Amino acid sequence: MPSEPSAAPPANTHVSTVTDGIATVFTWEEGARIEVRDLGREIVIEANSAGLKTLAGHLLTLAQDGTPDGAHLHLEENNGLEAGSASLVLERCDGNSPPPETR
Fold this sequence. Notes:
- By secondary structure, the protein is of the alpha+beta class.
- The protein is 15% helix and 33% strand.
- β3 and β4 form a beta hairpin.
């Protein structure tokens, strides 16, 4: 992982989204660094401790009761992820549709 300044939002950043009238707040830990690499048949998510806590928090936020199906968060290079990262979407899906690769 590069030692350049983090592309994560500044410390104590909260991003609020509203889906179906439900507000969802995503928070970044201070000093979070997250890098996503697409190696073809494998995706690597590499993060420091703060970055792992940030991702865990994002997933727990999406898992909360009352969070609607389809609620999601886009993470991209220079928008929550390190430079050179592949984009990452975290999305809640409670539906019974098959995974994308089998549709």
